[in-house]
């Protein structure tokens, strides 16, 4: 169902929706224009009128109107699958914001429906996958040059949020309205990138703090240890109460190491041979020289550092451009919608492990156990209906 021009319906004209509308009105995405805007806030009608596009207060009416042939969902997380399913069922290409769903059952319903409509383009808005830094690292790791994964860690605590942030919307930081805290709001991009680069973990053991430094019921601090199999492990640390913040990704492999600081400076160390081979072939005298700093490290490794700079905004335009080309049939999606379930499952598994205080399988994730625990928390809130 390829088309030469995409008329995008923006569902939700908040911060993200306004940003996309601005990009399109400025002509930054070739062959994509705003087809219509939808928001339940009637005051947004004036914004649509300024842009000269139709306004709807019901996304179904917008999809049914014929004004759009694609939509992007910039709405509370629980609504992404519902809106995506309706769009796909009515022949409209669909780009959902992250996360693709709050829980795996919900995400799979959307993904399975999309699989029944291969004529339609279904993507997830993982703009970090367009970042040249991560694209280069993905290519390097996939090439096998650095060998097998041994350990990886990501400390990403640059999400500082004041109490007022959580109080600006009733649905924020709730189990029934948002589905979680930092894992579903701030960190989905890193959860996606981590498994995209290193592979999907097999299991996780996690400790989460709920309402630790903020007056909320969901998690504002996370410490997770994952098992990738074959002895490879990883750790993921995030929170929303660190004003200084740290963003450091390390990926250790058999033949080298990657360190990324602040999501822009990558240092790649390449060993001259497999680490185990270097270890087995090193005699005691050489070890002494190494420890004393007398050994020329160039005989063991080389180091390369590259500063990729800041590419905020450019990433979002690139997702829209890539999605447009995918609709036209000229490019493959960099972030197919089906990929969205991996980060959702990892977040769900981290929650479940923390709730049950035990290691949780990701390979054979118990969706029913997760839903039972989630619904307990939604019921305790007393603000929203439980989920099926």
TrEMBL record:
Cleaved signal peptide residues: none
Gene Ontology molecular function: nucleotide binding
Pfam families: GFO_IDH_MocA, GFO_IDH_MocA_C3
Location of the Gfo/Idh/MocA-like oxidoreductase N-terminal domain: 7-119
InterPro entries: Gfo/Idh/MocA-like_OxRdtase_N, Gfo/Idh/MocA_Oxidoreductase, GFO_IDH_MocA-like_dom, NAD(P)-bd_dom_sf
Domain GFO/IDH/MocA-like oxidoreductase: 134-258
PANTHER family with a match to the protein in the record: D-GLUCOSIDE 3-DEHYDROGENASE, UDP-N-ACETYL-2-AMINO-2-DEOXY-D-GLUCURONATE OXIDASE
Protein name: Gfo/Idh/MocA family oxidoreductase
Provenance organism: Propioniciclava coleopterorum
């Amino acid at each position: 169902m390829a088309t030469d021009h995409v008329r995008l319906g923006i569902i939700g004209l908040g911060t993200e929706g306004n940003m996309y509308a601005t990009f399109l009105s400025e002509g930054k995405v070739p062959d994509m224009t705003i087809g219509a805007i939808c928001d339940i806030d009637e005051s947004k009608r004036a914004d649509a009128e300024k842009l000269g596009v139709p306004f709807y207060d019901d996304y179904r009416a917008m999809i049914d109107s014929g004004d759009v042939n694609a939509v992007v969902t910039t709405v509370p997380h629980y609504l992404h699958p519902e809106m995506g399913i309706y769009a796909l069922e009515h022949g409209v290409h669909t780009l959902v914001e992250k996360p693709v769903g709050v829980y795996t059952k919900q995400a799979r319903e959307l993904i399975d429906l999309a699989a029944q409509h291969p004529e339609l383009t279904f993507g997830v808005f993982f703009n970090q996958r367009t970042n040249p830094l991560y694209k280069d690292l993905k290519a390097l790791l996939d090439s096998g040059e650095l060998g097998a994964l041994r350990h990886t860690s990501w400390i990403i605590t640059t999400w500082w949020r004041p109490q007022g942030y959580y109080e600006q919307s009733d649905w924020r930081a709730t189990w029934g309205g948002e589905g979680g805290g930092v894992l579903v709001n701030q960190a989905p991009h890193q959860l996606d990138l981590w498994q995209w680069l290193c592979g999907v973990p097999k299991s996780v053991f996690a400790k989460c703090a709920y309402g630790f430094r903020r007056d909320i019921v969901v998690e504002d601090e996370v410490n997770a240890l994952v098992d990738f199999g074959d002895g490879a492990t990883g750790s993921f640390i995030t929170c929303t109460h660190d004003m200084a913040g740290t963003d450091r990704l390390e990926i250790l492999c058999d033949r080298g190491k990657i360190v990324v600081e602040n999501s822009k400076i990558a240092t790649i160390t390449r060993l001259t041979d497999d680490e185990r081979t270097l270890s087995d072939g090193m005699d005691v005298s050489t070890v002494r020289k190494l420890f004393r700093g007398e050994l020329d490290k160039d005989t063991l490794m080389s180091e390369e550092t590259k500063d990729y700079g800041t590419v905020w905004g450019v990433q979002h335009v690139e997702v829209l451009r890539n999605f447009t080309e995918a609709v036209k049939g000229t490019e493959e999606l960099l972030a197919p919608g089906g990929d969205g379930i991996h980060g959702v499952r990892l977040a769900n598994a981290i929650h479940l492990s923390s709730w049950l205080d035990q290691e949780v399988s990701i390979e054979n994730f118990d969706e029913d156990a997760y839903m039972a625990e989630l619904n307990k928390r939604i019921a305790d809130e007393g603000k929203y209906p439980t989920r099926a």
